[in-house]
From TrEMBL:
Keywords, alphabetical: Lipid biosynthesis, Lipid metabolism, Methyltransferase, S-adenosyl-L-methionine, Steroid biosynthesis, Steroid metabolism, Sterol biosynthesis, Sterol metabolism, Transferase
PROSITE patterns, per database record: SAM_MT_ERG6_SMT
Any GO BP annotation: sterol biosynthetic process
Cellular component terms (Gene Ontology): endoplasmic reticulum
Gene3D superfamilies named in the record: Vaccinia Virus protein VP39
Name this protein carries in UniProt: Methyltransferase
Organism: Panicum miliaceum
Any GO molecular function: sterol 24-C-methyltransferase activity
Amino acid sequence: MSKAGTLDLASGLGGKINKAEVKSAVDEYEKYHGYYGGKEETRKSNYTDMVNKYYDLATSFYEYGWGESFHFAHRWNGESLRESIKRHEHFLALQLGLKPGMKVLDVGCGIGGPLREIARFSSTSVIGLNNNEYQITRGKELNRLAGVSGTCDFVKADFMKMPFDDNTFDAVYAIEATCHAPDPVGCYKEIYRVLKPGQCFAVYEWCITDHYDPNNATHKRIKDEIELGNGLPDIRSTRQCLQAVKDAGFEVVWDQDLAEDSPLPWYLPLDPSRFSLSSFRLTSVGRMVTRTMVKALEYVGLAPQGSERVSNFLEKAAEGLVEGGKKEIFTPMYFFLVRKPLTE
């Protein structure tokens, strides 16, 4: 169902950015990041611009490589990547106790792969919150093709300032999305506000672990690469995220870094030592083919100027993610389930 061909990738590069302005957008995006000398405070104060530029520039690459669900997954032996991604989404729905008829919010929903899967799995209605116009346009088309437009929709808004009344949703979840928030407490407080009392919020967070050493130059480089290649203002620790959700008012039901007991490493699809026909585009060979292809498309004018540089910083992110995973200093699946108290 996702766009899969070379020309589809080329046509989507740059998202809603004018094709003639993609190169300058790449320039501006790169300058935000520590890898190029940018400052954390600048990223946080300009997070809306930074994250929007990132997803305009990167979404077509994600869809080309990953399909409709842009996230990693806890994975069992003998399980395909696609199967693990679906199970990762089903696990979240089960933890939330979703039931038919419930109204659910997906915070930072991408192009809506998870919300479509969760809506069908649980017979719920899911609203996807997203601040990127290109992803919403793409997501609505995928909803139409999947026949779920009646139960799945999108709202364009900043998750730091949601356009919903208090106590609107029966459940809220976020999958590798609230890591883009400049202030986790502020983001979690907004989620707390729109969630009904007694109901739950579940999240997979991108975090640095207790193994991360801020004084280790290699660790710092890996963190910078991940932030650059994934549009992040900062990567918070698991402890910071847990404290932030408590400070927002939630009661913690349980939390765990699901990467710790995953039978197969979460970073396996990006590991250069691995080859897979089923997820070829994610392998080091597949990424090299994509990089070469994008360079050729840019050369002949089918892809906008700057596209190869986007491919390059996404490649740098893949390297940082694999190295961070192997050193156990980074996880994309710190999970916690929290509840809004019945009475405040």
